[in-house]
Write a structure and sequence with these properties.
The structure holds 2 protein chains of 2 kinds.
Chain A lengths: L7 E9 L1 H7 L3 E8 L3 E2 H9 L3 H6 L7 E4 L2 E3 L4 E2 L4 E5 L6
Parallel strand pairs in A: 1-7
Antiparallel strand pairs in A: 1-2, 3-6, 4-5, 4-7
Chain B lengths: L21 E4 L5 H9 L7 E8 L3 E2 L2 E2 L2 E6 L3 H16 L4 E7 L1 E3 L4 E9 L2 H18 L2 E7 L2 E4 L4 H8 L2
Parallel strand pairs in B: 1-6
Antiparallel strand pairs in B: 2-8, 3-4, 5-7, 5-9, 6-8, 9-10
Helix pairs in contact in B: 2-3, 3-4
Classes of the chains: A alpha+beta, B alpha+beta.
Chain lengths: ~100, ~170
């Protein structure tokens, strides 16, 4: 008997800021992902890179990109759950 | 009796780090007025350190005719409040204030104000520098410069990361 992995539909609110908001030509969107295991920021990035074009180049490994989950600065390995707000932005330049 | 005593409030109540110590605004600020407010009715302050960041007309060998500051509403205020809270834990200070402007600014305009009050100068200087170093690397603000060659987003500096890494 075969056990199929059960994928749950997860809804993530994405926010793009500053240079990346302009590059992606959008301020926010809701991403629906069928996830069969716990999500991380990295997993979200994989989905976005899969769109190709400017998404793949701006989010390529090695590019300086910062992330916040529910408005807290986090690393790429940080978990992401259903309903979370994930912000993607360049290194900050205030002050 | 000092003139500042007329501005009411609860001068001797200990103040805690929080959003009431940070402001993000489009309008200008008056450092003298902000310091007067912090000092109002208090005689335990022995040192006040302040920092003001202003817009320069040149950056990375290009003429800058103006800049636009963008932020992440909600997160920016919380990040600043967290930085102020951490400064209060690390340093023996009495009060801290951060005011940061967003929107369109011109060369010569004020961008950011940090004020620290404490009993002695050492802690005031250190806390002021700490808050600015953390703000430069952790608070979500982005500058876009206007130059005769067009608009460009300001790149983050490695020297800012190095400065923040000291703490």
């Amino acid at each position: 008997m075969q056990t199929a992995s059960v994928a749950t539909l997860v809804s993530i609110r994405l926010v793009y800021l500053a240079r990346l908001r302009e590059a992606f030509d959008r301020e926010r969107e809701t991403l629906e992902i069928a996830a069969d295991r716990a999500l991380t920021v990295d997993a979200i990035l994989d989905v976005l890179r899969g769109r190709g074009g400017v998404w793949a180049s701006e989010l390529a490994p090695g590019r300086a990109v910062r992330f916040a989950v529910n408005q807290q600065l986090v690393r790429r390995t940080h978990p992401v759950a259903d309903g979370d707000e994930v912000a993607v932005f360049p290194p900050v330049t205030g002050g | 009796m000092s003139m500042a005593a007329s501005s009411a409030g609860h001068p001797h109540e200990p103040r805690h780090g929080g959003r009431d110590h940070v402001r993000v605004q489009t309008g200008d600020f008056d450092a003298g007025l902000e310091i007067t407010r912090l000092r109002a009715g208090r005689v335990d302050i022995g040192a006040i350190a302040s920092f003001i960041g202003t817009v320069r007309d040149v950056n990375d060998a290009a003429t800058v005719t103006g800049l636009t500051l963008e932020h992440y509403p909600g997160m920016t205020e919380q990040a600043l409040a967290d930085i102020v809270g951490e400064a209060r834990r690390r340093f023996t200070i009495l009060d801290a204030l951060v005011v940061h402007r967003v929107g369109a600014l011109r060369p010569g305009d004020q961008i950011v104000l940090v004020v620290i009050t404490s009993a002695h100068r050492g802690m005031a200087f250190d806390a002021c520098e700490y808050v600015m170093d953390m703000l430069k690397t952790r608070a979500p603000f982005w500058k876009k410069e206007r130059t005769p060659q067009g608009d460009r987003w300001v790149e983050a500096r490695a020297s800012d990361d190095a400065a923040a890494g000291r703490w």
